[in-house]
Design brief:
heterodimer; A: mainly alpha; MetI-like fold; 2 domains; B: mainly alpha; 14 helices; 2 strands; 71% helix
């Protein structure tokens, strides 16, 4: 009995270590973002400043280009998430419900796209998009991100469709519905949780993407949050409070979507790990 | 079911060819949007990128564009920065994958059995996964910064450092900065994947084993590990490829410096394309990286085949 109590205490302590490790960097981000500039250096390693302020946040929101970056990122990530989920639910449905000759090749192609280094595509994509006027534009970024995320999202949606019994749509088709009507009216509503999870995954991925945004965008007007933040860091590298306030703002949408999809993480990442 | 649709009075009736065509093309129509996107934005640029490796493409030089054969590869074979990057890639990938796997496995084992508040604990410990990679990089760069971060002062206090300095600008230890950030960021991925595999192990196996008197360690070795092995193998393989290509943290935290000590092949490709605007040379390095990764994957697959055949 005594030994098992000891085990429980050790287990809880280990869990506590992981929680502290996971949250400490984010806590520090928050702490510096509310520390007034005059206390930043004098109270370096204190866990909480003796005086907190929201001045950095109000400066970032009022006098910097961050609201624009935020809006751009929201447009890009939102459109990407919607487009990818649309395409992936169609192709995931095809992979889940049909057996057809090219299926093997489609799966192989999608697996291939998960294996090669995307950084290989930086130069050619720039060269292709540039004469089309799609560099330095949000549309270009949306197109690129959509293509990058479709394969994973397809496997994800396929695993959700696989979980829905075939008999449901067969019954509907016996009642005279076409396959597409059955898909739209019966299967899609049942996959709503899966669709929400896919939206969340893709939104987070597009929100974080850095290298292609750096390459394809220059100038503030079309900059997404990562590009804007990095430019800000290299230009004003002494305004730590403002940078971290901006960082906290960048964290908010990602964290919100994480809470939304956290329940599906185990299912989703398993599908991704097994198939791609 | 297809037969039922085309059958009247119990006899098979050939459907009109238009309907048959529509039926046959249906899955292709569903897949078309995704396929068009993948081919246009990934496959075509991949092929073009491979062709760039044999051409002289510099963005700022209007006279470039000619075919130069294997000139890039000849230059590459004498590029000391490239060999350094290759060595750094091994170091970066090996250390990151091992540490992520080790801490991820422990976390998954800790979360396996239900306990009060597990849902909340899961949400908290998996949170780093949701942090955008650029922000994770900046966040850790700031933590390592002696001006505003606590880590140098702690290391100084422990006597590890002679004075609170920035590890990211120390050529000898700089690589540890991005590795630590990567481990922090990647533990949830391994924990989630392994947790899913753990939950799939039938519980009665454990009961049977403990009735037979097996202790915790014996149960772990003879039940848990064999069940986890396939997941571990595939996750580590995929993660290795993924991490060796993952340049975000390095680009954000060190930019490859100091003195190229943290430059990995992926960040070197990006630097050549983004800073030097030398697309031809960048594509040549990328092609070498692609071949190396393919060789690695083939090696793992062959190794797996040999091991499976031996049993």
């Amino acid at each position: 009995m005594k030994q098992s109590l000891l085990l429980i205490v050790a287990h809880r302590l280990a869990i506590l270590c992981y929680i502290v490790l996971a949250l400490f960097p984010l806590f520090w981000l928050l702490k510096v973002s509310v520390t007034p500039n005059d206390l930043l250096y004098s109270e370096g390693v204190r866990m909480w400043p003796s005086r907190a302020t929201f001045a950095h946040y109000s400066f970032v929101l009022r006098h910097s280009a961050f609201p624009t970056f935020f809006k751009n990122s929201l447009i890009v990530s939102g459109s990407t998430a919607v487009l990818v989920t649309g395409c992936a639910s169609l192709s995931g449905y095809a992979l889940s419900r049909f057996s057809f000759r090219a299926k093997y090749w489609i799966v192989a192609l999608m697996l291939l796209t998960q294996m090669f280094p995307l950084v290989m595509l930086v130069a050619p994509i720039f060269k292709i998009l540039s004469p089309l006027g799609l560099t330095n534009s949000l549309t270009g970024l949306v197109v690129v991100y959509t293509a990058f995320n479709v394969p994973f999202a397809t496997f994800l949606m396929q695993s959700f469709f696989d979980g829905i019994p075939k008999e449901l749509e067969e019954a509907a088709m016996i009642d005279g519905a076409t396959k597409f009507t059955a898909f739209r009216q019966i299967i899609l509503p049942l996959t709503l949780p899966g669709i929400a999870a896919t939206l969340g995954f893709v939104f987070t991925a597009a929100w974080s993407e850095l290298l292609f945004a750096l390459m394809l965008i220059n100038g503030n007007n079309a900059a997404t949050f990562p590009v804007g933040l990095l430019t800000f860091v290299s230009k004003f590298s002494v305004d730590f409070g403002q940078m971290m306030a901006a960082g906290v703002l960048a964290l908010i949408p990602a964290a919100l979507f994480f809470l939304l999809i956290q329940r599906y993480l185990v299912q989703g990442l398993t599908a991704g790990a097994v198939k791609g | 079911m297809m037969i039922a649709a085309g059958t009247t009075k119990g006899l098979p009736v050939r459907k009109p060819w238009l309907t048959r065509l529509a039926d046959a093309s249906e899955p292709y129509l569903y897949s078309a949007p995704s396929l068009i996107l993948i081919v246009a934005v990934m496959l075509v640029p991949l092929v073009i990128g491979i062709s760039y490796a044999f051409r002289d493409i510099q963005l700022l030089n209007p006279f470039s564009g000619g075919f130069i054969g294997i000139e890039h590869f000849r230059a590459l074979s004498q590029d000391a920065a490239f060999y350094g990057a290759l060595k750094n890639t091994l170091w970066w990938t090996g250390a990151s994958v091992l540490l992520q796997f080790f801490f991820g496995l422990i976390l998954a084992l800790l979360l396996d059995k239900p306990f009060w508040g597990r849902g909340l604990v899961q949400a908290l410990v998996f949170l780093p996964w949701a942090v955008p990679s650029f922000l994770a990089g900046l966040n850790w760069a700031w933590l390592f910064n002696p001006v505003i971060g606590p880590i140098p002062h702690w290391l100084f206090g422990l006597g590890v450092m002679s004075q609170p300095g920035n590890i990211l600008s120390d050529p000898q230890y700089a690589m540890w900065g991005p590795i630590v950030a990567n481990v922090w960021w990647g533990i949830p991925f391994f924990a989630i994947t392994l947790l899913a595999a753990l939950q799939a192990i039938p519980r009665d196996l454990y009961e049977a084993a403990s009735i037979d008197g097996a202790n915790w360690f014996q149960r772990f070795c003879s039940i848990t590990l064999p069940f986890l092995a396939p997941t571990i193998a595939i996750t580590v393989l995929l993660r290795t490829v993924w991490i060796s290509n993952f340049a975000d943290l390095i680009v954000v935290m060190t930019g490859g410096g100091p003195a190229d000590r943290t430059q990995i092949v992926a960040s070197y490709i990006f630097t050549q394309a983004f800073k030097a605007l030398d697309f031809g040379y960048a594509s040549a390095i990328a092609l070498v990286l692609l071949v190396l990764l393919l060789a690695y994957s083939m090696f793992i697959i062959l190794l797996r085949q040999t091991l499976l055949n031996k049993d």
